[in-house]
């Protein structure tokens, strides 16, 4: 397996127009590829404003999704992997917050449906209840690539250390987090949680947020970032639309795990994380 | 149960003289009590330099430890709880890194023996191997107090999210961490891990480090701190010897857990943390 690759994180300005969002995503994938990216990551709900009514309005079935067709074509034409942030996806009468992962041929190699639904109620600050519209996924997701196994979670999933440990124990060395923290939780929690997950599990983490669009009802924090297994920040966006890049050398995972053998030092005689 | 109390964190300058360290600890407990503290926290290895040879030289049996007798007396005379950092403790032919917890009468109400031993080897930066001399404890530790259940871990234990989840599930609302991170790991990991544990588990965390003593072979980072269940910093020391205080209102735990119901939202149908 190849040990080195370039990551691109597309901090898209998501707007209330699906076609515009698709055009933007395709264009950013193309630009990322021109800048020699191997893996491109899009943000959570990259084709849809973060709003329960919009989720229903914008939703597509996986089989005939024009969003997925466009991303597949972009991945194939540019010859890059794409962790396609997330989109509102319907199956039967269920609505999911779903991340599809594409290989360099535009084939879908993985699907993560957000498994922890975001219900927050801080009086006079922020209220959002995903469980009003969404159904939770039931699967810990890792996909195989030519570089390493990659884990994928979506936004609120990142608040559960259990999930990161399970992906790590399954062999993920890079974990992708399409996520849209807001202006209340973002400044206090976003960077700390991303860095802590990387430090605890000694993996690379790439977190992709939409750019900050003050015109929407839910304003994303931005600050997409790539963190290495020691917790060092390799790349970080501001609040505006931009693509950030990070050159990943997977040998850093082994190096950090040799220097500080956290995974070996777990006391699995006393406790353990189990998947049911 | 009382919902409010004052914490004092004694960031002691530990020196290579056991009696001086005991005198210092007793004096800082007295000062904390004068400033109306209810619970006083001492740092890891507060009576002994952080060094494998010193651990052996300074070690005491719990039954006849002059360090513990002095701390018990100080707790009783001042009428405060003391989470007595840690000391090198022998039992039979074993040596432990042990935290004794005292109530307001000076009675021992809990004992945590460090259960993850710190073995680090970063070439040309830092090498330390606790497992050369120490034996690991085998117990997840929580103690009952008049305020709430308190969890206790020691330093390297804090790198294991499993342990924090277990203490939280057992009902701990405050977790004490006597710890001595160093000048390599401290600046990058100490604050991030402490805040992440608080944010993930929505508990108060108090972390007590020795002050920075450049004269010892292992230089502690300092930066003792108290963090609330939202991750907000209530008090933080610098590098020098000092006592920091924080007024704790436990209703903040319930408030944060209502606003963002992380513990309820865990997907225990998919995964779980088990204690064996």
State Rg of chain A.
17 Å
As residue ranges, the low-confidence spans of chain A are none
CATH superfamily of chain A: Carbon-nitrogen hydrolase
By CATH reckoning, the class of chain A would read: Alpha Beta
Q: Beta-sheet strand percentage of chain A? A: 25-35%
- Quickly count the helices of chain A: 7
What is the strand tally of chain A? 16
Protein described:
2 copies of one chain form a homodimer. The first copy, chain A, has helices spanning 18-34, 52-58, 66-78, 161-169, 185-201, 251-259, 262-265; strands at residues 4-11, 39-41, 60-61, 81-91, 94-102, 108-113, 119-122, 126-129, 142-144, 149-152, 172-178, 204-208, 225-227, 233-236, 242-249, 271-275. With 276 residues, chain A is an alpha/beta fold. Chain A has a single domain, classed as Carbon-nitrogen hydrolase (Nitrilase/N-carbamoyl-D-aminoacid amidohydrolase), CATH 3.60.110.10. In chain A, strands 1, 2, 3, 4, 5, 6 and 15 form a 7-stranded mixed beta sheet that branches. Chain A has a 6-stranded mixed beta sheet with strand order 9-10-11-12-13-14, covered by helices on one side. A two-stranded antiparallel ribbon of chain A has the order 7-8. At the A-B interface, strand 7, helix 4, helix 5 and strand 16 of A face strand 7, helix 4, helix 5 and strand 16 of B. Strand 16 (271-275) of chain A pairs antiparallel with strand 16 (271-275) of chain B, so a sheet runs across the interface.
């Amino acid at each position: 397996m190849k040990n080195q690759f370039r990551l691109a994180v597309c901090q898209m300005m998501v707007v209330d127009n699906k076609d515009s969002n698709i055009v933007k995503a395709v264009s950013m994938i193309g630009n990322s590829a021109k800048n020699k990216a191997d893996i491109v990551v899009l943000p959570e709900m990259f084709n849809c404003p973060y709003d329960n009514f919009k989720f229903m309005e914008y939703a597509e079935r996986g089989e005939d999704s024009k969003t997925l067709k466009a991303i597949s074509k972009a991945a194939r034409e540019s010859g890059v992997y794409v962790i396609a942030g997330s989109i509102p996806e319907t199956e039967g009468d269920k609505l999911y917050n779903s991340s599809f992962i594409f290989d360099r041929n535009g084939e879908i190699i993985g699907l993560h449906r957000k498994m922890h639904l975001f219900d927050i109620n801080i009086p006079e600050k922020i209220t959002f209840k995903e469980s009003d519209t969404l159904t939770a996924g039931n699967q810990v997701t890792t996909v195989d690539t030519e570089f390493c196994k990659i884990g994928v979670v979506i936004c609120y999933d990142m608040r559960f250390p259990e999930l990161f440990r399970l992906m790590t124990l399954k062999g993920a060395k890079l974990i992708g987090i399409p996520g849209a923290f807001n202006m209340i939780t973002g400044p206090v929690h976003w960077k700390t949680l991303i860095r802590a997950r990387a430090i605890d599990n000694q993996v690379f983490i790439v977190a992709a947020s939409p750019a900050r669009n003050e015109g929407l009802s839910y304003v994303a924090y931005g600050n997409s970032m790539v963190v290495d297994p020691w917790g060092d920040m390799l790349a970080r966006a501001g609040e505006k639309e931009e693509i950030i890049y990070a050159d990943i050398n997977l040998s850093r995972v082994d190096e950090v795990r040799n220097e500080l053998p956290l995974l070996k030092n777990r006391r699995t005689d006393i406790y353990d994380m189990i998947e049911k």
